[in-house]
Amino acid sequence: MKETIGLCVIARNEEKNIARCIESVKGLVDEIVVVDTGSEDKTVEIARSLGARVYRYKWDNNFSNARNYAIEKMRSRWILLLDADEELDRSAWAPLREFIETTDLDGAHFRVRNYTGSYSPDRYNLHNALRLLRNNGKYKFSGAIHEQITRDGQGNPGGFAVLDLIVHHYGYLDEAVAEKNKRARNLPILEKMLAEQPEDAFTLFNLGNEYLSAGDMEKALSYYARSKENVRDFSRAFVPHLYFRMANTLDVLGRQGEALKVLQEGLAIYPRCTDFEFVRGNIYLRQRRYTLAIESFEKCLEMGRPPAALEFLDGCGTYRPAFLLGDIYARFEDWGRALQYFSKTLALNPAMTGVLFHVCRALNKLHPEKDRVREELFKFFANPAYPPNILAAAEILITEELYAEAINALRALPPAHEHAAKEKLLYARAYAYLGERERARKAAHEALQLDAKGARALAAHLLLVLALSEGESAEMEKALEIACGLPRPTQNAYRLLADIAQGRETAPRAFEDGGRGELEALLDVYDSLLRMRQFELFEKFLRAMNFIDRPELLLRLAHLFHARGFYDLAVSYVLRSVRELDVIDEQGAFILSRHVAGTLSGAAV
Fold first, then answer.
1. How far apart are CA 312 and CA 314, in angstroms?
2. 529-534 — which CB contacts under 8 Å span 24+ positions?
3. CB 196 within 8 A of CB 144
4. CATH number of 1-176
5. What percentage of the chain exceeds 70 in pLDDT?
6. Long-range contacts of 173-181, Cβ-Cβ distance < 8 Å, separation of 24 or more
7. Range 553-563 average pLDDT
8. By the 8 A CB rule, do 114 and 182 touch?
9. What is the rounded average pLDDT of the residues 57-64?
10. Contact 113/59 with Cβ under 8 angstroms?
11. How far is C-alpha 376 from the geometric centre of its chain's CA atoms?
12. How far apart are CA 415 and CA 392, in angstroms?
């Protein structure tokens, strides 16, 4: 008999998500069942239009009751359990079909990627969740919320696999949480459960999660602590998550010593949990206890990827510690080891293309022959002749102030390709920073002709900088005209600089949010002026900072000076920030610590 499989979903007011969920399994499943618990939007109509059988269920504040009602409506031999705000990754289809055709087990947990904050494909945490169940009538869910599976009325049944199949979950994104107000729905249910069982560790853990999501760290920690005190069975799936979240909450609250104790205890119970070791290494790194951080990250690489039940963040045993080891060695200018670990990072995760900027920095420090830097950089590309790779390499070289080498890289492009506007903009940047103003201006205008909208922001920036460096009022006005349509703060900043350049009266101006957006635009212009070695103009246009009312202003200038190699200026601005504004950040602290270390080293000599 064919092993059939059906999708089972419970939903309410999920018109934004239900189609994505169903379409992620269309062609894989043999039936689709949606149990609606009271939608007031188009959830039901959308589900039916996609072939689902829809049943109504009167909501009774109990997810298990709704889930069990849905299971009763299933006809397939296997049930795929997805929430409406989830989707099954396409890569799971073939192994899922193979599993149900060959297994003697009764179900499987999948790897759920919980995306948080504003959506980014790289910003998620992980947990295992039961998503596949044999439809043999032996299994039911229990618990009003965060329901758990039972077999024949007995809790914690065995007989399930853990498969490395990916489910994408979007319900924890900021927009979704705010829209659905899940806290208002979940908290009363959990509090009722806790009143019935005041020492239930799982309920306490879930209450902690609710307050963590709401940003109430102290209350979340209090529930985590109570949960930890009441854990009796360390094999339960939620317990390692409890240790992980408790440690991270303590860390956020500034209680790193307690966080380290929780992680140490967690490692004693779960010695294969690489994620605990990775968090410990991160705490050491932020405490600037570099030797201990290096030991932790190297141990992470030795431990490798943990078992699925003990993995909360992707890459804690692979590319994450490799990258941070490279970063540590770069801080101490051990460029050989830095390059070694950045290379390892890319080998472990080729998708981390941003690491190539760090690779180029290390190569630039290691090799005085700059053509060799370009040649070595291209070795990191699978196809060095592919136009997007050439463009990426040129951009990296420009970032590292290797302008002539970037131009040499761009000359390898074929005469015709679909990224001509970007090519012209890269030429414009390189020529501008080399002081070849006419060639830079010509390339910027050619980019605008090829892609007026897409090239506008960078072209306007470059043309304004060129006009400022030449004192050409007419060219400044042309650049301001091109800047029309850019964000208002950028236009404000450019107009302010043009007024200063032309000696016009610069009356006090109040920018929105203290000039946050204007500050970013000004810093970009200052960066270009420093790259062009226009130091007198840089000093002149610093006057624009008088119109910015942001506490991070001096620190951001310090970061810029440090990035361009003006280390003494960077130190002086960090000290000014501390003295005048009482503000410092991690980068500022690093700049000071590097200065102190260098001073002490010189004194020792």
1. 7
2. 529/465, 529/468, 529/469, 530/560, 530/564, 530/566, 531/401, 531/433, 531/564, 532/432, 532/433, 532/435, 532/465, 532/469, 533/435, 534/469
3. no
4. 3.90.550.10
5. 97
6. 173/115, 173/116, 173/117, 173/118, 173/119, 174/116, 174/117, 174/118, 175/118, 176/85, 177/213, 180/13
7. 96
8. no
9. 94
10. no
11. 28
12. 17
How far apart are alpha carbons 327 and 338 in whole angstroms?
7
Helical packing angle, 420-434 and 437-450, nearest 10°: 160
DSSP per-residue codes, 446-515: HHHHH-TTTTHHHHHHHHHHHHHHHT-HHHHHHHHHHHTTS-HHHHHHHHHHHHHHTT--------GGGG
593 — pLDDT class (breaks 50, 70, 90): confident
Mean pLDDT of 23-48: 97
pLDDT tens across 174-190, in order?
888 777 777 777 899 99
pTM summary value: 0.86
pLDDT (0 to 100) of residue 158:
67
Structural tokens at position 441: 């201006």
Please give the angle made by the CA atoms of 199, 251 and 353, to the nearest 5 degrees: 120
Place of tokens 């040499």: 408
Q: Which residues contact 396 (CB under 8 A, 6 or more apart)?
A: 356, 357, 360, 377
Look up tokens 């002026």; give the residue: 529
Of the candidates 377, 304, 281, 294, the one whose C-alpha atom is nearest the C-alpha of residue 334 is: 294
| E strands in 170-304 | none
Q: pLDDT tens-digit profile of 259-273? A: 999 999 999 999 999
Mean pLDDT of 56-60: 95
Task: Name residues whose C-beta falls within 8 Å of residue 220's C-beta, 6 or more positions apart in sequence.
Answer: 208, 209, 210, 211, 212, 245, 249
The closest of 255, 283, 280, 285 to 268, measured between CA atoms, is 280
Cα–Cα dist 363/372, whole Å: 9
d(CA 211, CA 216): 5
Residue 81: which H helix or E strand, with range? strand 78-81
Residues 6+ apart with CB under 8 A from 259: 247, 248, 250, 251, 279, 283
What pLDDT, in 10s, does the model give residues 427-478? Answer: 999 999 999 999 999 999 999 999 988 999 999 999 999 999 999 999 999 9
Amino acid at 89: D
Q: Is there a contact between 413 and 423 (Cβ–Cβ < 8 Å)?
A: yes
**C-beta of residue 292 within 8 angstroms of C-beta of residue 284:** yes
The length of the chain is 605
Nearest-angstrom CA–CA distance, 417 and 419: 6
Amino acid type, 194: L
C-alpha–C-alpha distance, residues 446 and 448, integer Å: 5
- Asked whether residue 214 carries a pLDDT value surpassing 60, the answer given is yes
Domain boundaries, the chain: 1-176, 419-550, 551-605
Between the CA of residue 544 and those of 388, 548, 570, what are the distances in Å? 37, 8, 19
